[in-house]
């Protein structure tokens, strides 16, 4: 089977782009197996994802270098990546472990192709989970004193840098991260928030949902930006609830949403199906 | 077939209520055909809806009078209503007519038992729709000048009062109503808002949803209170969307949500299945 | 605003098709505003829908004639249609009128661009509905006697032929049609079936669903083929139910599914977004 | 906190049952915290689940003995169980481990109160999973020869009997069980089938779904009966799919349905919320 590559481009909408890209793929011996495009009329932007097989004698970096002149001509931003991709990943969590356990189970017994190299938490509850999946566990606790939080953030930032990661997943990591921690991971750090954002930003969204008396709860997976719960949304899902469901029950039902939505977002990222523009995403199928 | 009655009660949670109510129903010759209860543990409140058939020699008002001492003993708030109920209803709309048209079609060709006695709008677009369903149409427009809006609100308030209504449905009526207009209709005025509240309160929720890049849109039917889009929620539903859907497409897809959610809420109200407490509802099945 | 055209192609999967099609569109001065493709790996088939604006000096038929050599070269089946399209449509129904009423309301007060030229029924219940929307009503009843059904089918077939129709919608038309009636309308006759096919084929699907004790009901819109309920599926949707819902309640809840699913399928057809192959469909977004 | 008990009754519908049951609960010092009832009009049957706290000086068996005369009087079938209940459970699986892994993760890191005492499989793939959760693994393989299958079934039957189980979960166990193996576990053996039954009974439902071209796939959890895939359905859920999804993708997406639906059914069973009658279930909320 021939290797695959994924080309993602975004550029001002112009006539002729599709033909130019398809012609280029054909010129390097590529065979398009999946292509999807989107024109955002309000912003006059064009987005495309082209997945193609190729002979494999050419490395992806060489292909990218060959595409660069075309990209420059059309004023494109682009990425060109190999598929399948198995990103070096760290999973961060706190006391709630269902999302982390789910990601580990999918990686081990399912079909999520992550190379998980570390589990990290501000609590030590996750240590047995890491052990049962033979993963290194890093306990980065918040100590005592006025500077404890800053110290923890510095330690965490250094740890993440040291691990040579492609992807950081906040799988119910409950400490808000400062912009300095987030900035190096733009577009490479995915968080799961337990509400359908932008409703119920911040702490205790299930409590907020209960007190407002909503009939639907949700979960949102998004890239982390420097504004809390405001980054580009990758995936959301919802479930119907009723007056019968108290906060504990919402929390329980919400877990299924959180695990499924986070896994869906991570998969889309790993398959190079997400493009971001401004605070929004294009997620190709 | 024997007539039916619906008893709805809410009271502080106490041991023995269920037996007391069931015993009372049996004492008046009633046969319970459906009963549902809910205990809200956080507020220590008990809610129940009991639907029962009875011989019919006794009027519902007499039944209610007979229940009153029991209610007083247990510190209950209660209503006792006949079923089926065909409330005298006014439908208010503006330029978007899909919700109004749907309610009329359900009433005429479907199974929604409303006695629609008036269509009211601040625009005259709905006149042909009213005519084709042989309904009186009231055009209550906003005129020119500084006091035009207040004049319109006064006219509308008087019109609603004059119609001897049981129910007012805001089927995409787009003018915000002042508290004085809303107050007489507490628990009897239902609005459809085109977002999953509390996200995207106010104007242009589909535009807001698009700009935030959400992957789910929704609609919310609620009793109108004196705070905009803050009344007790009766029904909500949602639909998955993608980057492909621009504001016009969200608006189009949202119409199906709005019509279905509004009809669902109106039906629950007409079947005496809704109880409110604070800003929340219990909607029995 | 320039006119739009939609090119739909299906052909054996080959390298270079996308480039060839995009180059052709550019060669006729077209600007691709939306393109979507699908490769069915198991059948080695390629499908594409390309929506493009063009100067409009060229008629769609002329464009199609110009594309024919390319299509022949790549062994393509293709259609090339103008957009928007307002097909001459007949709506067939029986006693249940919710789907028909919904299609009329969407056409008149919503955004479904049908040119409805006839309502046809084997019962006369729909006559007032047709009248209130100023539409001709054709009552094609089944008479008495051994040949009554055949006579009715012949009358109906002739009526459909005489109306110069683009589209026939079976909006809860409850008589099974013989192959001779269906054959002339392959790919142009859409039916709504009140179950998630292939479960509960045939009569009384809500009764069947109730007796099997399912927890989900559905509705299916499909092109009519000569085998009952076996044609290519265009759209399906489902709703959760519970033990509480008797057959009457399933029927009532199912109506919302039926109207929404049928309208969704009709819209996809009208927007030239459906391709069929064998007994399956590709429905582009 | 006082202990809880759950009374489930089914009997011919009669006037006065609710009062009689509620009076009995009060007579033993019980306080009803949740009650739900259902009258099946077509079968004239009454079903009720009453959850109540009690002083705890009385054992559940003694309570049940005390209720028996009342049950006899009203011709009731009933069960009376303690809550919470942590059933001794065996999980059976084959090569697909996502459901088994999910149940283990929910038991260990989530909130599903099972006492899992054995993992059993006809393959040895699940051994590492059992080990990582410190569970005994039983490999009951099918050997060679004409009688191999019968031998395996006999071994499995004996193993299940020897484990003193309350519950057997078929978490994608792919061998069809003969009636003799199923009979001892009526109402205590739950299977997950990877389609929305009754569509796509038997082998390869995702292949069947793909070939029929459906737009929705599903999963069904049901009690196992002696007819394949025909037992009483406890839970079902569905997901929208498109032409893009090949059999492998349906299989992948279906996994999320299977794990969530199976866990939902198991939870309902463990909380004594399910009653069966004929081939249907009542699942109280």
- Across the major sheet of chain A, the strand order is 7-6-5-8-9-10-11
Q: What name goes with the CATH superfamily of the largest domain in chain A? A: Formyl transferase, N-terminal domain
**Level-2 CATH architecture of the largest domain in chain A:** 3-Layer(aba) Sandwich
Question: What would you report as the Rg of chain A, rounded to the nearest angstrom?
Answer: 21 Å
- Number of helices in the DSSP assignment of chain A: 8
- Tell me what portion of residues of chain A adopts beta-strand conformation: 25-35%
* Helical content band of chain A: 25-40%
Q: Return the average pLDDT of chain A rounded to an integer.
A: 94
How are helices and strands ordered from N to C of chain A? Answer: EHEEHEEHEHEHEHEHEEHEE
Shape of chain A: globular
Polypeptide structure, described:
4 copies of one chain form a homotetramer. With 285 residues, chain A is of the alpha/beta class. Chain A has helices spanning 17-27, 60-74, 98-109, 127-132, 148-162, 179-182, 205-212, 247-270; strands at residues 4-12, 31-40, 45-53, 77-83, 88-93, 115-121, 137-139, 167-170, 189-193, 216-223, 233-240, 274-277, 280-283. In chain A, the strands form 3 sheets. Chain A has a 7-stranded mixed sheet. In chain A, strands 2-3-1-4 form a 4-stranded antiparallel sheet, covered by helices on one side. In chain A, β5 (88-93), α3 (98-109) and β6 (115-121) form a beta-alpha-beta unit. In chain A, α3 (98-109) crosses α8 and α7 (205-212) packs across α8. The first copy, chain A, is globular. The relative contact order of chain A is 0.12. Chain A binds chain B through residues 38, 40-42, 47, 196-200, 211-216, 218, 232-238, 240, 242-244, 246-247, 279-283, and chain B through 38, 40-42, 47, 196-200, 211-216, 218, 232-238, 240, 242-244, 246-247, 279-283. Chains A, B, C, D: Pfam families: ACT (PF01842), Formyl_trans_N (PF00551). Chains A, B, C, D: One of its GO terms (molecular function) is formyltetrahydrofolate deformylase activity. Chains A, B, C, D: One of its GO terms (biological process) is 'de novo' IMP biosynthetic process. Chains A, B, C, D: Keywords: Hydrolase, One-carbon metabolism.
């Amino acid at each position: 089977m021939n290797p695959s590559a994924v080309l993602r481009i975004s550029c001002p909408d112009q006539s002729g782009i599709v033909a130019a890209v398809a012609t280029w793929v054909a010129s390097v011996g590529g065979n398009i197996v999946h292509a999807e495009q989107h024109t955002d009329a309000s912003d006059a932007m064009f987005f495309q994802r082209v997945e193609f097989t190729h002979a494999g004698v050419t490395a992806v970096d060489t292909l990218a270098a060959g595409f660069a002149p075309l990209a420059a001509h059309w004023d494109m931003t682009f990425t060109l990546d190999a598929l399948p991709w198995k990103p070096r990943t760290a999973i961060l969590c706190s006391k709630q472990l269902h999302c982390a356990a789910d990601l580990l189970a999918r990686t081990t017994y399912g079909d999520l192709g992550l190379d998980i190299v570390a589990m990290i938490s501000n609590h030590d509850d996750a240590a047995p989970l890491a052990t049962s999946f033979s993963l290194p566990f890093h306990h980065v606790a918040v100590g005592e004193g006025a500077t404890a939080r800053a110290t923890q953030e510095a330690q965490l930032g250094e740890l993440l840098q040291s691990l040579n990661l492609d992807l950081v997943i906040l799988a119910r990591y409950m400490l808000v991260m400062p912009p300095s921690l987030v900035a190096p991971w733009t577009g490479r750090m995915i968080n799961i928030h337990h509400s359908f954002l932008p409703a119920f930003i911040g702490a205790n969204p299930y409590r907020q949902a209960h007190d407002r008396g909503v009939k639907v709860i949700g979960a949102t997976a998004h890239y982390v930006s420097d504004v809390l719960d405001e980054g580009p949304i990758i995936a959301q899902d919802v479930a119907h609830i009723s007056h019968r469901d108290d906060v504990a029950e919402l929390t329980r039902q919400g877990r299924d949403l959180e695990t499924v939505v986070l896994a869906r977002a991570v998969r889309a990222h790993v398959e190079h199906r997400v493009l971001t523009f401004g605070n929004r995403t294009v997620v190709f199928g």
